[in-house]
Amino acid sequence: MSKTTDLLATRKDLKAGMSAKDAANVMLEKLDRFSIPDSVLPAANLVAAGNIHGRLQVQAPPLNEDLRARNIAIFYKYIEFENTRDYENLEKLFHPTEFRSTTYFGGDPIAPRALTRMLRGLFRSFPDWYMTVSEIVGADSMGCAGLVTGRGTQVEEFFGRPPADHQVAIPTIHAIRVDADGLIIEHRHSNPFEDVFKAQVMAPQAEDVQAVRAQQGYDSEAARRAYEIALRAGAPEKDLAELRARVETGRRMCQTLLKETLRRCSFQAEPGDIYCKLHQTSGYGVDGIDEMVLKVDVRRRTR
């Protein structure tokens, strides 16, 4: 790889002291209306391959075809078990302690049974919900993503919407990450039920907007990063203890969703359980959740 000084020696239009952004734009000046905006400057440090044709392919680890095929098969199994309501085998696809369902539960791990409870709530409202895989849009040694269409007839109130006697068909993108043992450690998809014009706006510092919304504004990744930075910097134990408590707050959040918003309950789970006291015996996925119980829960969270 040539050094910067070598490049300056051969290119008369590049000047000493020029920023990396300006130098890159000089190199690309013949491409009509092409420039590098400040918002993507971190990407300049990545290694890219292939011709520039509107999309840059970031260099990835060597592809293992066996793992790629395995991950595609796991993706199809996930869809199959949801369609057949085979909750027992569906839970076996997920890592028992490090599984994240980012779309609905945020960036902290949940128990697999928390996801199947959520699905039971979904299928109460859409008892004939069925998904088909239209296309595998990407797969490698670490995961798989596919275009999936969900179809169903709403027969019960869902996400604040009254039931309607017609079938909906909703295209989504589903993606899974798989560990070395073949267990799903993350599942996420575009939320087909969320109105982006009504969803709360997250602060610019929130990198994973979907995850932060799921946890009602709590940014688990930022909490973990703050703790790790403080630990490396040798912060006093008192400060580290406070940051550890913030991380633990996210991990101990009740693992059920509020029916009205499909956001994760913000109360802390009871010791030895994954649900808060209220949602151990009622709530989304267990029953239709009584209107009065829901209103009491909302009032308690907003005080």
Features of the shown structure:
two-stranded antiparallel ribbon; 34% helix; 303 residues; globular; 10 helices; alpha+beta; 7 strands; five-stranded mixed β-sheet; Nuclear Transport Factor 2, Chain: A
How would you summarize this macromolecular structure in one to three sentences?
The protein has about 300 residues and is an alpha+beta fold. It has helices at about 5-10, 20-25, 65-85, 85-90, 100-105, 110-125, 210-215, 220-230, 235-250, 290-300, and strands at about 50, 55-60, 100, 130-140, 145-155, 165-180, 185-190. It is globular.
Question: What this model shows, in words?
Answer:
The protein is an alpha+beta fold and 303 residues long. The protein folds into three domains: 4-58, no CATH class; 65-218 and 253-302, Nuclear Transport Factor 2, Chain: A (Roll), CATH 3.10.450.50; 219-252. It has helices at 4-10, 20-27, 65-83, 87-92, 102-105, 112-125, 209-214, 220-232, 237-251, 291-302, and strands at 48-49, 57-58, 100-101, 130-139, 143-153, 167-178, 184-189. The strands form two sheets. Strands 3-7-6-5-4 form a five-stranded mixed sheet. Strands 1-2 form a two-stranded antiparallel ribbon. Residues 1-11, 30-36, 38-57 and 288-303 have low confidence and may be disordered.
Helix/sheet category: alpha+beta
Overall form? globular
Number of domains: 3
Portion of residues in beta strands equals 5-15%
Would you identify the CATH architecture of the largest domain?
A: Roll
Report the average pLDDT across residues: 78
Q: Major sheet, described briefly?
A: 5 strands, mixed
